[in-house]
Amino acid sequence: MKPVWIIDDDRSIRWVFEKTLTRENIAFRAFASAQEALAALKTETPQVMVSDIRMPGESGLELLQRAKALHPNLPVIIMTAYSDLESAGSAFQGGAYDYLPKPFDVDHAVELIRRAMDESIRQDTTAEDTEESPEILGQAPAMQEVFRVIGRLSQSHATVLITGESGTGKELVARALHRHSPRASKPFIAINTAAIPRELLESELFGHERGAFTGAQAQRRGRFEQAESGTLFLDEIGDMPQELQTRLLRVLSDGHFYRVGGHQPIKASVRVIAATHQDLEARVKQGLFREDLFHRLNVIRLRLPSLRERRDDIPLLARHFLARSARELGVEAKRLSEATLKYLTAQDFPGNVRQIENLCHWLTVMASSGTIEVKDLPHELRAEAAPAAQNWAAALEKEVEAQLNRGETGVIDGLTRQFEKALIVKALAHTGGRRIEASQLLGLGRNTLTRKIQELGIESDKKSGDS
After folding, report:
1. Disulfide engineering: 36 pairs with which of 31, 217, 408, 460, CB 3.0-4.6 Å?
2. Helix (H, G, I), strand (E, B) or coil at 261
């Protein structure tokens, strides 16, 4: 890791930092002036910069301005006396990460530097992600499985059915499947079958001949022809009218179709990827979706997890979308405080990735502060989650108080056992007893989960639970 730079003309301040950072095993370099630091910046980059605001020669504010011009993502902590709070305001306007008032508490200074180091590492990761312009982000086990499937299908022409809630990124995955397939150089054509009126959908898919119906003044190529030799993505396939389901089945079965009003068969060399947020098996049972078409589409099933199943990815996604919104609007990217990241990670996000993308765009436009706190989030997001969180925390506090008042000991051990047991029981119920899936959702190793099940006396030792 790169060192932390300390810039202060006061030798005693540099000495305090040198002793403290050495004790904390944090690499550092010390400079007696802004000029020295600026000279070093030409060939080196610190992880974090901590600078006094008033120094002979160039000031800390001038150093901040020049450092941010060279390295926009570099966290700079400005040290200032209490009488310099106005200057601290100028430092924030100049892009400072935070300010450290003098005289400072050593432990507070270390905590602030460590937070800035974490922020620097995250910014470096975000910058790398931005350079690569990834379409799909995810480090959670559930998303890693999605990436593995995309990789395994890289040389395949097989039909794929993508399922998942609205906003999970089904079209992005379809585009990734196309981009990594042998058809990558050919067209990728997408159509949302639920967004086009029933009477126009047939023409959209298959095209029409001139005079096929009123208003058809010229021949028109449909989406199947436009996607020739490439990939056709049929979004919200579950809403396709039954008469068109029959026509689609015929194309998938024999590889030919007719334009509306046409009499000559047209060969379709197209890979079909379909997607739906609906339960197609249930729609088949209800007679709303053809069973034979379902089996034609369901050659390879790829289920996208909801954001609730990959909460660890929420900070990664939020930083990515904040950076992208900032680029689009030509402004400096906002940062999320640790408290805000924890708060967002606890939310359910029924709109999934699309909802968090919209939230980040809103924050980029509406949040006045460079660092976003929980209070800066939209009112509806705070209002929805606050009651449950407050009730949960309040109930826990009351139980702790009651046990302490009764003179009980080992309070934390007892409550931790109850807490872990509730989590594991609910996770196993959610996965139907499948321990591997439950361990992934809980963020535990499978062996750890098995051990805790035994230690906590959870009655779930069914054969199905070991799968």
Report:
1. 31
2. coil
Q: Each residue of 78-110: pLDDT tens digit? A: 887 654 545 555 555 556 777 788 888 888 889
Same domain, 184 and 218: yes
Look up the CATH number of the domain holding residue 179.
3.40.50.300
* Residue-level length of the chain: 467
Among residues 128, 62, 120, which one has the least CA distance to residue 91?
62
Q: Which residue in 259, 260, 265 sits closest to 213, CA to CA?
A: 260
Segments forming the whole domain that contains residue 252: 157-303
Identify the helix (H) or strand (E) that includes residue 345: helix 338-345
Q: Does residue 140 lie within any of the structural domains?
A: no
Ordered DSSP codes for 83-110? GGHHHHHHHHHTT-SEEEEES--HHHHH
**CA distance linking residue 382 with residue 361, whole number of Å:** 17
What is the reported pTM? 0.56
The CA radius of gyration of the chain, in Å to the nearest whole number, is 29
The total number of structural domains in the chain stands at 4
Share of the chain above pLDDT 90, in %: 35
In contact, 227 and 190? CB cutoff 8 Å: no
